[in-house]
Amino acid sequence: MEVDPAALVNSAITPDKAYSLRPNAKATMPQTRFKNIEGYDEDQVSEDEAIVYISDLPSNIQDDKHLHDLIENRLEKTSQIKPITIECHSKLGVGFMRVRSTKIKNRLVEDIKGLVLDLPGGAHLISFSDTIELVSYIVIDKTHEKNDINLPTPSEILDRWIHLYNGEKPLSCDQLNIQFPNIYRIVSTSFDDFLAAVSNSDFLINKLFAHVYVAADCSYFEDLPKSTTKEQLETAICNSIGMKTVSSLSLHIELNKETNSACIIATDKARLWTTKSFIYINDRPISKKANLTCRLLVYPILEIHNNDEIINHTIFDGHASILERSGENLVLEISNKKIYDDCLSVGVLTPKGKPKLKMEIYMAGINPEDREIDTETWYHVEMIRYKSDIMQFTADPDHPIFRYKWSAEIWLQQFQNAQSKNPSNNVKSKNQSNLSNDQIRHLLQMTVMLNTIGAIRKKVYLINDQQIKLNLDSKLKTIV
Fold first, then answer.
1. Which range among 96-110, 328-342, 410-424 shows the weakest confidence by mean pLDDT?
2. Do 262 and 252 contact (CB within 8 A), yes or no?
3. Is residue 118 classed as helix, strand or coil in its secondary structure?
4. What mean pLDDT comes out for the span 445-473?
5. In contact, 344 and 359? CB cutoff 8 Å
6. CB 33 within 8 A of CB 130
7. Is beta strand 114-119 parallel, antiparallel or unpaired with respect to 122-129?
8. How far is residue 297's CA from residue 327's CA, in Å, rounded to a whole number?
9. Does 125 score more than 80 pLDDT?
10. What stretch(es) of the chain map to CATH 3.30.70.330?
11. What's the pLDDT tens digit per position in 372-416?
């Protein structure tokens, strides 16, 4: 994050020095209220003094001194309260004040609860509390990883956090969701850990680079156009918040091309994003969301299966509803994120006395049968994971490769790329770079055979988007 740690830690906005909130063995202040306070002079500080935390500082004011003055003047005018110290961290959206007694603290926390600041853009409400939960996001960088990576567990992230920042154990740490497993949400109750993370936001865990986005906001986009890029999203967000560019340390964009969704982590100079509700891409408004819709694809649905029996299955615990039914595909919305993640982890639904069904993430807005075999679904992502042998697919008749649409043009382009002797014409994905042209050609030939098997099983194939039915003799057998 582009924050001067020294400026943050020493940004007390009064003649008093900045205060750390670490425990102090010499302190005699009431432990229930002051166990996090240190750095004060016992001769000058009353035992009855207290800390009040400030949250929801306005994102459009980056001047800590100005925020201090606004809060101090407003408190004195409306409540006749003058804090000893007010410390604001505008880039993080939080702060704290030291008041002269627990009685004043209780009045601020229990009675007043918040304060309306009159700003040029309108009124803004800040909140007071006697404790604080500080949310940060840790992103594991997988940009340059060629293969699947073993992501650290939340408990490993917690242990690394405690080791790095020499603080107390955070309240919680969880993987964000199954669509963005390399992002972790961590909640800390220690203000000092918070500031320590600002000054040391990059670290290594399990030989993977990680970055902490301190005091960050997390939001999502769903149902994005298939062609959407990270660059388009960044440009649209910058336009929305009135900035030409924004550092990747302030704004992180994680794009999931399979589900056409994106996760946006914003902090520091990009905090203005919290005040926006949509962006424009190609003149089309796209709303941001606080949470992803948990859409589950269940297939293959046969005549013997009953929709009500499926959604009432115990695995869903009453949290499933039908979004749509198309052919052998049933799309459900799961209203409980934990149940949704559990379903994706298990991957199999077993109706009583009926054929098993598969469960997977629904590709937002896209019917799997409508997706082409292209570089995103197959050639540059999945194909290169396999050996050029069709036998490994025969045990899984519901593998996606049997369900995608065939594109002769895309296949031919891939085959020509693999035949080219001119390196500049031989376009490979980073995952294909370890394969020879001969290996790629064999995989492409395997793809043709797999598509043929899929057409025979479905008894239909496409030519120029026209569906042709296969009239197969029932006595004939397909031998693989």
1. 410-424
2. no
3. strand
4. 82
5. yes
6. yes
7. antiparallel
8. 12
9. yes
10. 5-129, 134-213, 295-367
11. 888 877 888 788 888 888 888 877 777 888 888 888 889 999 999
Q: What is the largest CA-CA distance in the chain?
A: 98
The highest-level CATH class for domain 295-367 is: alpha beta
Tokens 């550092």 -> residue: 247
Question: pTM to 2 decimals?
Answer: 0.67
Query: 107 in helix, strand or coil?
Result: helix
Of 34, 87, 53, 338, the C-alpha closest to 188 is 53
SS3 assignment, position 261: strand
pLDDT in tens, 190-223: 888 888 888 899 999 999 999 999 999 999 999 8
Q: Say which CATH class 5-129 falls into.
A: alpha beta
Beta bridge partners of 463: 466
**In degrees rounded to 5, what are phi and psi of residue 336?**
-115, 120
Cis peptide preceding 15, ω within 30 of 0: no
Closest CA to 364 of 293, 300, 284, 287: 293
- CB-count exposure of residue 197 (10 Å: 0-12, 13-18, 19+): buried
Q: What is the CATH number of domain 217-287?
A: 3.30.70
* C-beta of residue 154 within 8 angstroms of C-beta of residue 173: yes
Categorize the per-residue pLDDT at 282 as very low, low, confident or very high, splitting at 50, 70 and 90: confident
| Mean pLDDT score across all residues of the chain | 83
Query: Which amino acid is residue 472, in one-letter code?
Result: L
* 57 pLDDT more than 60: yes
What 3-state DSSP class applies to 72?
A: helix
Phi-psi map region of 180: left, alpha, beta (phi>0 left; psi -120 to 50 alpha)? beta
Rounded to 10 degrees, the C-alpha dihedral 33/37/40/41 comes to 50
Instruction: Indicate the pLDDT class of residue 348, thresholds 50, 70 and 90.
Output: very high
Pinpoint the alpha helices (H) of 322-433: 337-346, 391-394, 408-419
Q: From 304, 373, 361, 300, select the one nearest 333 (Cα to Cα).
A: 361
Tell me the three state secondary structure of residue 146: coil
pLDDT bucket at 40, cuts 50 / 70 / 90: very low
What would the two tokens of residue 422 be?
A: 């001119």
- CATH ID of 134-213, from 1.10.132.30, 3.30.70.330, 3.40.190.10, 3.50.50.60: 3.30.70.330
